[in-house]
Every structure is written in C-alpha cells, then in structure tokens.
C-alpha cells in the first residue's frame, strides 16, 4: 500500500482528496499542527515558525500533496494577514524542501497547490496558458514566491507538479455558498460589471487532477487546474438562479460597495481571469464536469441532499 502525505489535509480540498485516495487503496497521512492516530488518517505534526517537522512523517512516504496555506479570502487583508498569506505558503514549502534534503525518504513526487492568481487580479479577455506573464499585484507576487520555493524541490531530483487552481466550486465551502446564498434569498445580482471572467473547477475534478498528476510520472511542471469553459460572473449568477428557480435582480452590485465592504480583497471579486485548460487536457486529463451548468446542478443537488461534495 502506497503512502500519501497531505499538508493542509483538514481543509475543504484536503478532506475530499483524502476520502478519494483512501477509496483507491492508498494510505493517507496528514501533516499539520494536530497529531494523533485516529483512523483512517494518521496525523503528523510540524511547526512552520520553528522550522520543525516530525521526521516520522516522511518515513515510507511515496507522495506528498502540498496544500498548506492560509485562506486568501478568510480575513481582511491587513498588513499582518498579508504576511501570513505569504509566509504560510513559502515557509511551509521551504520546510518541506529542507526535510526532503536532510531526512531519509523515498518520496517519488510532490504535487503542490498553486493558483491562477499568478497571472494577476484582472487580465481581461486574454486566454491565459501556463506561459502567460505573471501579474504585479499582491496575490501575483505571493504565487510567484510560492512557486519559486516549490521549484527548489525539483532541484533535489524529485518530480514536482504545480497545479494552478482556479475558483473551486464545492457545496462544502469556498466561493459557491457565498454566491448561492443571495440567490436563495431572492437577492441575487451580478457583482460589479458582471463581465469579469471566473475560471472555475468542480472540487471533484480538482481532487481527481491531484491524483492523476501523482500517478502519472510523465506529468511535470505547471498546469492550470481550471475547467475547459470559464464563465463570466453574470453567467455564473444567472445559472445558479436558473437551477434554483430564483429570479436574478435586473441590477448589479456596484463596485464601490464591494470595495467598501471588502477593501483591497474586493479586487478579487471585481477582477477575473480567462484561463486555459488545454495543457492539462492534452496531457491526458479528462474532466468529469467541463460545463458550468452540469457542475452546478451536481453541487446544488448534493447540497440539498446533504451529500459530500
């Protein structure tokens, strides 16, 4: 039985990925602040601020899936929060790199989370492939630094895959419940211009992509983890309304109100990226949910029935 070590395993993506890996016959362990041997996941500890990692965590580990990082949209972007967003990614990756250099292990590959935020908060109508230039805003700089640390793992001789994740759609958290709630309350409306692109991915497809990248030794480097058909914010809102049988208000939530409410973080909502999935598809990955309406129908029906998605 092969062993997969997941950092950030207790998050929305990590929990679903854990379940899917176990269903495929992998042994899964988590690396985080908590410890314990509760079935079916053993938990190993690390302390990123102190540069400590339990040496047992890497013992007999075949693959590492690196998801750790403070939530970008969880709290206001104060100077301290920005520093936490950056360091939770770069310092945790650097700690992994040091451990892989110094401790005995048999790790074959590290599959690391990254983000389409690399390209900038608002890239307009351009379709972005993996070779598109990086942006200059805060999140773009964070992702550049994050990926630079991840690339150092490859210099050890370990295969590294970076999945640049778009907007993850899940009924269990993230962006979707925030988009759905106003629509359910008959208050749904496009945000800002509504024309900003949302490059999304169903959480199940994202987890499948992590496993696919892990299991395929020819997969290496950066891949956009987005569905093949990005949609505008207005299209997303209207599709949710269609599925829930709710009218969408004939007005837009003004940009100034969003900036007033969220500050600098509001630029994430008002901007957008139209990101290509061509590279990952050409490498052999097949999406189960390539179309927005099908993905939303599945997720919103899962929400209604209490299924885990």
Structure description:
The protein has 309 residues and is α/β, with parallel strands linked by helices. It has a single domain (3-305), classed as NAD(P)-binding Rossmann-like Domain (Rossmann fold, 3-Layer(aba) Sandwich). Helices cover 39% and strands 19% of the residues. It contains ten helices and 15 strands. The chain has helices at residues 12-23, 79-102, 138-154, 175-184, 203-215, 233-244, 255-262, 267-270, 278-282, 292-305; strands at 3-7, 27-32, 42-47, 52-53, 63-66, 109-115, 127-128, 159-165, 167-170, 173-174, 197-198, 200-202, 221-225, 231-232, 274-275. The strands form four sheets. The chain has an eight-stranded mixed beta sheet with strand order 4-3-2-1-5-6-8-13, with helices on both faces. A three-stranded mixed beta sheet has the order 10-9-12. A two-stranded parallel sheet has the order 7-15. Helix 1 (12-23) links the parallel strand 1 and strand 2 (27-32). Helix 2 runs parallel beside helix 3. The longest helix has 24 residues, at 79-102. The chain is globular and about 60 Å long.
